[in-house]
Amino acid sequence: xxxxxxxxxxxxxxxxxxxxxxxxFPVSPNLDSSLKKNTGFIRKVRTxxxxxxxxxLLKDISTLTLVKYLSEIVSALTEGFTQCKSTASLLVGxxxxxxxxxxxxxxxxxxLLSNMLHGVANxxxxxxxxxxxxxxxxxAKARLERQRIVIRIIIELWLAGVFRSSLxxxxxxLPSFATVKNKAxxxxxxxxxxxxxxxxSDLVTYSPVTITIMIIKNYKDYLLGNESLDVExxxxxxxxxxxxxxxxxxxxxxxxxxxxxxxxxxRVLIKLEQSNEMSYLRAGRINQTRENDYAVLLEECxxxxxxxxxxxxxxxxxxxxxxxxxxxxxxxDGNNNGNWEDDYERNFYENIINLSPxxxxxxxxxxxxxxxxxxxxIKDFESIKVEPTNVNEGKKSKKxxxxxxxxxxxxxxxxVEDVVHTGDAEETTANGEKMMNILMTLSSKTSKExxxxxxxxxRHVNNRASRRKVLNFFLELKTTDQHKLPIYTRFIATLxxxxxxxxxGILAYxxxxxxxxxxxxxxxxxLARLYVMRFFSxxxxxxxxxxxxxxxxxxxxxxxxxxxTAEIISHLLEGCxxxxxxxxxxxxxxxxxxxxxxxxxxxxxxAVEDRMMIASALYYVNxxxxxxxxxxxxxxxxxxIRKLIYIDLDSKSALHxxxxxxxxxxxxPDTLKALKKxxxxxxxxxxxxxxxxxxxxxxxxxxxxSFTVMVIDSILEDIKVGVEQGGYKNxxxxxxxxxYLGELYNNRIIDHNIVMSTLYLIxxxxxxxxxxxxxxxxxxxxxxxxxxxLVCSLLDSCGKVLNHTDAAHPExxxxxxxxxxxxxxxxxxxxxxxxxxxxxxxxxxxxxxxxPEMPIYTSLQTSSEALKSIIAGKVPEPETIDNxxxxxxxxxxxxxxxxxxxxxxxxxxxxxxxxxxxxKERLKAKxxxxxxxxxxxxxxxxxDDFEAEFQNMMLERYKNTPGKRSTFxxxxxxxxxxxxxxxxxxxxxxxxxxxxxxxxxxxxxxxxQDLKGISLPQESKFVESVLREKENRWKxxxxxxxxxxxxxxxxxxxxxxxENDPLRPIMQPKIVRRRVLTTExxxxxxxxxxxxxTSSSGNSAKRSDALDK
Length: 1109
Hints:
mainly alpha, Serine Threonine Protein Phosphatase 5, Tetratricopeptide repeat, two-stranded antiparallel ribbon, 43 helices, 62% helix, RNA binding, Upf2/Nmd2_C
């Protein structure tokens, strides 16, 4: 059965009911109201929701009244839903509910929704707190089972359209969580509100994760949709994209929260495991309570990890592995060297000459019982009692410290006698000389071969006296001969099978020396501590030291942790720590002692340098695992395209590479994706090949125009993103992008408007109103100069083509746009502080390329004025220079020029040749631009003079009365100078102005006023506004005059006196006009309406007299 098709069919019908349709479900005209059949229908709904009973149920709905039994039907249907065990039976219940809804509408679905939402609601916290722990756990389990069933029913009915929104059914006793409004002010649909209620019930153990997994498995296509598709698919017919996003956000948030909780639980589990191991080492067994706690926590963590993993897989999220056991195991280095760093070290410490005993039969290698050795070491570890650190240790008086340091370690003779038995009383002279030669050779020539040869030579003189000499030789070594210890120890290890008493004697000496230095915390013994621990380390690497002695050294040092013992531990771990860590026989106990060292380091008072020393040693022994970057998997076609563009492409192979690219299948998604990457990520291409890539785009454009548009959009968007993000790490990337854009313009792929808009975008983005200020902005600090470098790079790449296009097509106005931008660039540069030398040189090169004749400004004020002038259409004036300095500089230049001409190396100028056609056109266009600017300058001169005089007048006025506000009450001198030269038009509607307009400017010097005539061009904005204002005033006066005349004409034959009329004509006051009225204009004003004038009353005559005056 196609469930999706059936759901869609039911949804269309139910939505029609919500829209107001009443005839969706066919109902019999004669409904049966018998009690037996109605109660039988209720019984079938409660117990028989299955596919076999569906036809009879639908028939009963269409033939029975059922109106009086709606409440019983809702209760029975709710109970019947809870008994559905399969999807088929659940859909039968949905179809029955749809039929009832199509017949009865909200009267049916309202109580049903109320029942369902109360079924998923969580009980109040007060109710749960009143229960015992056992009852609370039982109630939570039953609630989860009920919620698992009810939430599925709600989702099915919502997808079918029976439920739409909780706001439609607010009158039916809905729980509070169903009507809560979100941040957007809307109410979530019933499924989403129910899911939030279920997931919020337990954020401690995350028990509802099983319900979440069930919902996603069954309704993922409807609730989540396909996130990778941008277009609407079939699932959007049920759930909109916006609602799918809300469902996905809820599930993703829950999954991330569960991951965080699971990892915290895993850390607790690992700590408990380590604590149990330490307890086992101390007591030899683990407490039963600890074991039970660990088992319970392990089971809980395993459930959390399994649920979290499944949830992440369903949502398509990446989950990093969660570790439930301690990861402290022996590292596998990935090589065959075992415990060693390289082959040389392995050969040095393992490949030793095997000397079998020949002369001394008594010398035998001692046998060690390894079975009981580990048990003894564990007992020693358990018996550790850490002594508190004495902060004042070593702070003795100077006299005591001097006397103590004067005492040196003396190895007692009886210890040697206990180890080395007295040899024969008489030694042959030959053996004595050989022995002396062997020891001298060993001490003078330190190499592996010399040590092996000396061991072979010693085999021939092996006796008790010789062994004693060798022992005394090693006991009398200086602490400064530490660099020879590896060779000496190899010699000892080679003789170990035939001289076991030699090894025992050296170990006894080192152990006594260690006991001495660990009790003496004096700085003068630093070399002694280093010597002893390095000697021990070399002996350990040759496996000459038993494990009990090794861990005794760590045991004694850790239990009395202080400055000098920290040095001892550090020297020991740096000498043989990695060997012990990699050796399976010592790895377990070493890890335990290292953990103990970390704990003691945290508890004890140590100086910063001591902590750093221990931390460095621990890092050396057990460094963190190396994280190797995973190689990105790419399709074969992408690898081939990357090889063509990034490796093979150059000026010689460009044609070959382009042919290969055009031969590819551009319809293939993998190929198109790879081509898009290499053409859009231009910063990965060699800098010299950017021009070739732009030429490729030019050749590709006729065949694949959409691809070209996509590349251009991507580059422009990347440039904008780079300006938004900033940062130093992307600087080279951004340089490549703007260079690429310039090359695209050079190949006629984009228009010059795109280049100009990009230039302004780079300089103005982030500033208020796109106006750079000397104070900078958050995206472009005042000392950041990279935007200038970007602009210069873009102009350097396409500046020549822009100039050439401007010369060939001056009608496009590219030159004026570039002029404005170059002045704007100077203004932007002056807003910056302390421009570096390299940027300054780049700016000079750019100006030399684009506008070599443009004046350079050195201050913010002059550059700002120049920018305003060029925007206003004027020619900016160059920055003024002091006359004396300028004359001196001119004299110097003249003198240098004369000297250079007199020189024999003077090269005369080349004679001028005939210009080409392009150069002639360029000169003509340039001359036309200059003429236009000259005319604009003349037109603006009058306005500039007027504005300057006006500003001076206002400044003078302000200086005479500073801080005082007074009215300007000076009578205007009586001059009949015309303000505007005009003649009225023939129709009398609008005056006709001439080319110039005369104004009278009132000036004041001290107490003397004066009028000054000013002629302004008619095209200036000021004159246009004045004329427009006077024209409007003229029209208003004409309109008032016509209204008055019309009113008089209407009341001409009225016998009532005019004095009592509230609308009687009002005598207009005398109007003083500042313009000169000609006789023709006055006559025109008098003869506006001849009929009205001849028939007007005395008031009209008075008005005419006023006008005559």
